[in-house]
Specification:
194 residues; alpha+beta; two-stranded antiparallel sheet; 5 strands; 53% helix; elongated
């Protein structure tokens, strides 16, 4: 099948070809981990699953001949992963192991779903110019409060491309907003005390 101009062999077709060539084969999957994490690109909390797959052409007679594949999926990316991240992860791990065994990997090791999920993650991390412009305005407004040294540090990080994820932009934005809020609260208190 073609996806984004490249050929991908679907995992089901890899499995069929493998079982056809090796009728006594074994496909094993093991859940390596499930972790509740903060997704770096989006800042969202999500579950990340990691699975290892091992495929044996003939495990009983030749247990030392096998191929492995690993996959990790998060339940906050892509349409399929919203409800079936664990299952998708297992399929990807099997597909990768089979690709390493020579089934369907001639064009690409990655499956179509892996490519789609990677693209979905990139979209979540994509910082738009408007985000950076808003951050610049906040930084300038907060500069008298945070001091020249901190403001110049921000400007250096900004010019070096440090703010390349929504998480980094959001963290800086929260910092500047909290400084402005603290200053506003201080002004109100000073007026009451006067």
């Amino acid at each position: 099948m073609k996806f984004k101009g490249k050929e991908y062999t679907e995992v089901k077709d890899r499995v069929d070809a493998f079982l056809s060539e090796y009728p006594t084969s074994t496909i094993e999957t093991n859940l390596i981990s499930v972790n509740n994490i903060t997704d770096t690109p989006s800042g969202e909390r999500c579950n990340e699953y990691m699975i290892k797959s091992t495929v044996y052409p003939d495990k009983q007679n030749n247990p030392d001949m096998y191929y492995t594949g690993y996959a990790a999926e998060r339940d906050n990316t892509g349409f399929v992963n919203k409800t079936s991240a664990l299952e998708n992860c297992e399929t990807s791990a099997v597909g990768r192991a089979l690709a390493f065994a020579g089934f369907g990997g001639g064009y690409s090791i990655a499956s179509k779903d892996e490519v789609e999920n990677a693209k979905a993650a990139q979209v979540k991390s994509h910082v738009k110019i408007k985000h950076l412009e808003e951050l610049d305005k906040l930084a300038k407004k907060a500069s008298p409060i945070i001091g020249e040294e901190h403001y110049l540090k921000y400007k250096k990080q900004r010019s070096d491309g440090y703010f390349d994820t929504l998480v980094r932009v959001g963290t800086a934005k929260s910092y500047f907003e909290s400084k402005l809020q603290d200053e506003g609260d201080k002004d109100v208190k000073d007026k009451k005390d006067a």
